[in-house]
Amino acid sequence: MTLTGKLVTQTEIKSDGDLFHDMFRKPHRIYNICPDKVKAVDLHEGDWGTVGSVISWKYVHDGKEKTAKEIIEAVDDEKKSVTFKVIEGDLTELYKSFIFIVHVDAMGESNLVTWTLEYEKLNENVPDPTTIMDFLVIMTKDIETYHLQK
Fold first, then answer.
1. What is the pTM of this model?
2. Domain 4-149, CATH homologous superfamily name and number
């Protein structure tokens, strides 16, 4: 059994792709949009939306409050992509490494949000992070609903 893995999912959204990309480049507004899922997003180092910045999250996953501290590894405004590497928090109890990549493809009236999770489990008993991916898809839909209502 392999300890490294990659999960990819795509969700079509009708809201503006630039707005969605900006939401994850500067995620400090997400807790206002998804208060049942995200309790806080704080900047620890750097500036919002810049490589090397460190962000901490308090979120609810599987009914439990959890934390994650991430460093922004890459931002590509042209390709509408942001890469986060988890450096502390609950995910580090199960995974040796964990990377989130969110990418938006503009396709006219609709856009495609692609989430990619790249991870290495601490051992073979650790499950693949499918419930984390489910969480991200639901959060994506919540953000879309928020933008469509504006």
1. 0.94
2. START domain (3.30.530.20)
